[in-house]
Specification:
Length: 290
C-alpha cells in the first residue's frame, strides 16, 4: 500500500487550439499565470509531493522551450550575480531541475491524453506514477498532488482528483459512476468520458491529477480510440477497475481551468493578487475597470 510515488508525467503535447495564436510558437503550458508559467506551478506541486523524476511528453519543438526553462542558465545567472540582483538570481536558480531528474519523450501526433501517457511508458511502466495536467492549475495547501499521495499511501490503486461540475459541463470531463461516497473519498464502479448531461451517471468529474498503477498500460497498449476519436486515459482506468482499486479524492483547494480563456484570466487575477508585492494597489486598479 505504501509504495512511494517518485515519478510524474506531464502530458504537454496538445495543440492548445483554444489559445491560438498565443500557442502557435510556444506550448500552452508556458503561458504565464502572474509571474510563472503554468508548467512551473505543476513542477512545484510535484516537488512538494515528493516527486524526484519529471517526464515531459511533448513535441521536439516544445522540448527546446521547456528544456530551456528547466535547465540551468549559466549566462543569465552570471549577469544577475554581476549586477547584484540577488532575489532574481534565487528565482532563476530555483527554477532549474537536475539533468538526471528530467526526461523527455515525444508524441508525434496529438492522438489523445491516453496516448500521451502511453508515450511515457518506458519511464513509468512499473508504476505507480503521477500525472499532472498543468492547465488545471490548483491553489491548495498542501498541494493537490501531496493530498493525493497521502491518500494513496492508505488506499493504493488508481486515484484521481475530483470535483463537482455543473450538469451542463459534464460533456467536458471524465465522470464517475459513483459506488460509495464518504464526502471526501469516492469509490466508483465505472467512468464515462465526456457524457452528455442526460447520460452522465453523476456530476463528479475528474480534473487533471492522477496517480496510476502500471496496469493502465495493458489497455493503452491496444491504442483503442474512444470519444472524439481520441485514445482516452479514462477508458484505460475504467478497464482496470475490476483489478485495481479506484478512488476519486475530493481535494481541498481551488481549481482554475487554464485551458479556457475565462479560467485562465480568473487564475491570473487570483494568483496575481496572491503573488503581488502590492495586492491592494492591484485590487484598486481592478475596481476601476469592473
Ligand atoms: P486538452 O484537452 O486541453 O487539449 O488537453 P489541448 O490540445 O491542450 O487544448 P485545446 O483543447 O486544443 O485548446 C489536456 C491535456 O492533455 C495534453 C494537453 O497538452 C493538456 O495538457 N494532451 C492532449 C496531450 O499531451 N496530447 C494529446 O494528444 C492531447
Amino acid at each position: 500500500m505504501t509504495t512511494s510515488i517518485t515519478k510524474v508525467v506531464f502530458p504537454v503535447a496538445g495543440m492548445g487550439t483554444r489559445f491560438l495564436p498565443a500557442t502557435k510558437a510556444i506550448p500552452k503550458e508556458m503561458l504565464p499565470v502572474a509571474d510563472q508559467p503554468l508548467i512551473q506551478y505543476a513542477v512545484q506541486e510535484a516537488l512538494e509531493a515528493g516527486i524526484t523524476e519529471f517526464i515531459f511528453v511533448t513535441t521536439p519543438a516544445n522540448q527546446q522551450i521547456l528544456g530551456a526553462h528547466f535547465n540551468a542558465n549559466a549566462e543569465l545567472e552570471a549577469t544577475l550575480a554581476e549586477r547584484g540582483k540577488v532575489a532574481e538570481l534565487k528565482i532563476v536558480t530555483e527554477t532549474a531541475l537536475g539533468v538526471d531528474q528530467v526526461k523527455f519523450c515525444h508524441q508525434d501526433q496529438p492522438l489523445g491524453l491516453g496516448h500521451a501517457v502511453w508515450c511515457a511508458r518506458e519511464f513509468v511502466a512499473d508504476g505507480p506514477f503521477a500525472v499532472i495536467l498543468p492547465d488545471d492549475l490548483i491553489m491548495a495547501r498542501p498541494g493537490c498532488l501531496k493530498q493525493m499521495v497521502d491518500a494513496h499511501a492508505k488506499l493504493g490503486g488508481n486515484i484521481v482528483a475530483v470535483e463537482d461540475v455543473a450538469l451542463d459541463m459534464t460533456h467536458r470531463y471524465g465522470i464517475l459512476d459513483v459506488d460509495h461516497d464518504d464526502g471526501k473519498v469516492v469509490s466508483a464502479k465505472g467512468l464515462v468520458e465526456k457524457p452528455s448531461p442526460e447520460e452522465a451517471p453523476s456530476t463528479l468529474s475528474i480534473i487533471g491529477r492522477y496517480i496510476l498503477d502500471g496496469q493502465v498500460f495493458d489497455h493503452l497498449d491496444r491504442k483503442l480510440a474512444g470519444v472524439g476519436g481520441e485514445i482516452q486515459l479514462t477508458d484505460a482506468i475504467s478497464a482496470t477497475i475490476a483489478n485495481v482499486p479506484f478512488h476519486g479524492l475530493r481535494f481541498e483547494g481551488a481549481r482554475f481551468d487554464c485551458g479556457s480563456m475565462n479560467g485562465f484570466v480568473e487564475a491570473n487575477v487570483v494568483f496575481g493578487l496572491a503573488r503581488s508585492a502590492d495586492p491592494d494597489a492591484l485590487k484598486a486598479r481592478l475596481k476601476v475597470h469592473l
